[in-house]
């Protein structure tokens, strides 16, 4: 709503989009929002369309249908879209690794909904993956070659890959970026802190078995190469200054 007030002010809109990404550099949806708005002939209309698409994201419903019956799933932290799906699945057992101190709160929420869930300390990540039937990693952003997910996700995916367990990347509406914007996001991330101090990290596509998104569950990672926004050159300047 704030950006729609600037639809008649191209300079103000550009500055506002850049400031949003300065504050939230790991949000793929905000990168997509900015890119689509800045390249649209009618920014106000495009903002409304994007907001509706995100609000009506079918990913949680499709994930709900795709999770195997009576499965034990391993998740990290408090994944929003994954949480929406499994809150209604009474047959699923959840092992939530307490990354960033969010896993314990997530487990409490699940238990209030009568979902069988247990919290796992970060040191037990490998064991939790080994005890699961499926690893669900929610992407805050995605692009050619991988996804960006909460810290610990790369290790979880690697353990699952070595154990021949499926790893599903849950990529919600608006989070898939074109190559130039994906690289810009990663460059900003790399310059912000040492890799071991970051709250998010890249999970290589090679460790992911399936992608779940607005188009449902698909094997492989080809969907990560299909962007949901243009590569707005105005945003590339954001990271070259």
From TrEMBL:
InterPro entries from the entry? IF_2B-like_C, NagB/RpiA_transferase-like
Question: Gene3D superfamilies per the record?
Answer: Translation initiation factor eif-2b, domain 2
Please report the name of this protein according to its UniProt entry.
Answer: Unannotated protein
Task: Give the source species.
Answer: freshwater metagenome
Q: What is the lineage of its organism?
A: unclassified sequences, metagenomes, ecological metagenomes
């Amino acid at each position: 709503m704030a950006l729609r007030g600037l639809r008649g002010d191209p300079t103000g809109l550009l500055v506002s989009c850049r400031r949003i990404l300065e504050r939230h550099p790991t949000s793929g949806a905000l990168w997509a929002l900015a890119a689509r708005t800045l390249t649209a002939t009618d920014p106000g209309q495009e903002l409304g369309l994007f907001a509706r698409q995100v609000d009506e994201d079918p990913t949680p419903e499709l994930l709900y249908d795709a999770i195997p019956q009576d499965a034990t799933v391993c998740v990290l932290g408090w994944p929003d879209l994954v949480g929406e799906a499994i809150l209604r699945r009474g047959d699923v057992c959840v092992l939530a690794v307490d990354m960033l101190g969010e896993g314990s709160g997530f487990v409490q929420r699940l238990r209030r909904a009568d979902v069988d869930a247990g919290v796992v300390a970060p040191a037990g990540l490998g064991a939790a993956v080994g005890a699961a039937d499926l690893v669900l990693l929610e992407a805050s952003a995605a692009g050619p070659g991988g996804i960006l997910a909460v810290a610990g996700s790369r290790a979880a995916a690697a353990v699952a890959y070595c154990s021949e367990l499926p790893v599903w990347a849950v990529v919600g509406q608006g989070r898939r970026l074109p190559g130039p914007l994906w690289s810009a996001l990663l460059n900003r991330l790399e310059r912000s802190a040492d890799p071991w101090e970051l709250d998010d990290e890249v999970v290589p596509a090679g460790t992911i078995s399936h992608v779940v998104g607005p188009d449902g569950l698909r094997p492989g990672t080809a969907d990560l190469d299909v962007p949901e926004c243009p590569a707005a050159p105005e945003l590339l300047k954001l990271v070259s200054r």
